[in-house]
Design the sequence.
């Protein structure tokens, strides 16, 4: 935000009076220009991606045969990107909250006020546009009516989630996990009946193994397909 | 003539059920087509060795020929393992005097698969010709006599004796009976081929698009124990005693010059190979093992 780029001087309230009287060269050292500048970049990005999405949808609406509607996964991805960009803007705004709230913007004397009057009014406007106001109020009304329906606000949801998480942790700490048997199963294995069952299982396993050995003629390894092919083509192995 | 693209694999017997179920689900074919074929491998009886002359085609090869026919036998359940000391597995003798069925024989000669690195699958050209063979030349009266007289015919595979017997017994009946019994073999003999081995194939076949998936076992004649073969049936045993199933996945392209179709087929096979890699690993067979040329040194 150098002086040539924007004909505005930004200063924090405590230094305002001195600057007005003395017209010193503007001092930007107090202003975190990097992070503020990144807000602009982010806004630009969001604008672009929204525009792109809108173009695709409108294009489809206009020529349904020529242009295909982007796939579901594409929308999902785009939405994900938008959310990340919005989160990043929100965090920047939040961390610079004080600065932005207390900053006054005014034109420097060499700004061509009369020639760029339209631009000046746009840049100096602090009040939201009426349509923006409308969006905000409808969104607020909607969320309020929803929370009234479920009779539980977000904070309560968060509290519930927290409680559930804590409870699960607590429950898990009461157990120790070893091996593949439950305590009941282990106890059962110690009894005579349990031993008998284990024995039977082992026998069954042995039987199966024996069958397998018999089946493969004593664990013989099968012929490789190449060998069989050779027999089929040349009559010899 | 077909150009055949193929891949091979094998599975142990205990994986049969799983494999079949998976392939049924994949292909949507609940009742796979049964395969039961009988194959004679024959070889040219005289060696052809043309004189080397510059300027002429000197690469002349002789090939083994496979003679394949159907083998209708429902006694073998392919889903059960074939054990050495288990039930006797046998096949009906084909060349019996009382066998009047019309047989369709397919004579097949295959080229050695194409050489080259980085191939997606094995590519081979196969030439086939079909022959319907009936025993029409023999009249029935003769046959009855033959039945009484000579019932202990040896199986045709021991093909050397017939010549002797022809010389020894000058009876026309015997000669005719011989002809009757083995008329296809006589045909082969006239053609200049001699049988060197035989095998039976039992298995099932799935179809997946243009791809044919075959799962089978190869059976051979069991000569280890005497007297198990009867006049009607031949005792069989597995070629591979470990009960391993062979798997062959192939696709036929009608022209070997149709590069587009071949590339498409190769891609399809590779796709299937990738899809089934956790069930069985399909490999490219070694072309050397599929060489059906007769080497001149023998």
Sequence:
């Amino acid at each position: 935000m150098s002086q040539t780029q924007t004909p505005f001087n930004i200063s924090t309230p405590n230094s305002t009076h001195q600057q007005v009287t003395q017209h010193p060269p503007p001092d930007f050292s107090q202003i975190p220009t990097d992070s503020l500048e990144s807000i602009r970049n982010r806004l630009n990005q969001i604008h672009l991606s929204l525009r792109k999405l809108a173009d695709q949808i409108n294009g489809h609406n206009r020529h349904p045969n020529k242009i295909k509607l982007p796939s579901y996964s594409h929308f999902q991805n785009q939405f994900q990107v938008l959310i990340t960009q919005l989160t990043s803007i929100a965090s920047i705004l939040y961390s610079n909250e004080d600065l932005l709230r207390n900053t006054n913007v005014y034109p420097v004397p060499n700004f061509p006020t009369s020639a760029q009057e339209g631009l000046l009014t746009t840049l100096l406007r602090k009040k939201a546009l009426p349509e923006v106001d409308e969006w905000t109020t409808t969104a607020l009304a909607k969320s309020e009516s929803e929370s009234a329906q479920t009779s539980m606000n977000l904070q309560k949801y968060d509290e519930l989630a927290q409680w559930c998480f804590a409870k699960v942790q607590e429950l898990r700490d009461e157990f120790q996990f070893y091996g593949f048997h439950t305590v009941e199963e282990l106890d059962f294995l110690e009894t005579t009946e349990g031993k008998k069952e284990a024995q039977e299982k082992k026998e069954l396993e042995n039987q199966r193994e024996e069958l397998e050995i018999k089946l493969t003629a004593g664990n013989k390894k099968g012929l490789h397909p190449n060998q069989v092919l050779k027999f089929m083509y040349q009559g010899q192995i | 003539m077909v150009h055949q693209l193929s891949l091979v694999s094998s599975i142990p017997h205990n994986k049969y059920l799983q494999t079949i179920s998976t392939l049924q689900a994949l292909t949507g074919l609940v009742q796979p087509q049964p395969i039961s074929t009988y194959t004679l491998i024959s070889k040219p009886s005289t060696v052809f060795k043309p004189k080397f002359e510059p300027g002429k085609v000197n690469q002349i090869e002789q090939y083994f020929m496979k003679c394949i026919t159907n083998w209708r036998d429902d006694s073998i359940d392919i889903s059960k393992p074939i054990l050495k000391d288990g039930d006797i597995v046998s096949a009906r003798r084909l060349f019996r005097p009382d066998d009047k069925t019309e047989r369709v024989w397919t004579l097949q000669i295959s080229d050695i698969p194409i050489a080259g690195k980085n191939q997606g699958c094995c590519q081979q050209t196969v030439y086939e010709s079909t022959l319907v063979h009936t025993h029409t030349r023999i009249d029935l009266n003769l046959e009855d006599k033959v039945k009484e007289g000579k019932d202990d015919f040896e199986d045709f595979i021991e093909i050397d004796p017939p010549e002797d017997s022809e010389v020894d017994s000058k009876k026309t009946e015997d000669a005719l009976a011989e002809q009757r019994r083995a008329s296809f073999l006589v045909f082969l003999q006239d053609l200049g081929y001699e049988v060197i081995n035989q095998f039976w194939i039992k298995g099932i076949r799935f179809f997946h698009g243009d791809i044919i998936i075959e799962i089978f076992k190869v059976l051979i004649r069991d000569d280890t124990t005497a007297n198990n073969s009867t006049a009607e049936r031949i005792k069989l045993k597995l070629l591979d005693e470990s009960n391993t199933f062979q798997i062959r996945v192939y696709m036929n392209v009608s022209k070997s010059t149709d590069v587009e179709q071949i590339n498409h087929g190769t891609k399809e096979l590779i796709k299937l190979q990738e899809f089934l890699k956790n069930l069985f690993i399909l490999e490219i067979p070694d072309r050397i093992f599929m060489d059906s040329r007769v080497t001149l040194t023998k």
Notes: Residues 1-7, 11-20 of chain A have pLDDT under 50 and may be disordered. Chain A touches chain B at residues 212, 214-217, 220-237 (CB under 8 Å). The longest helix of chain A spans residues 33-62.
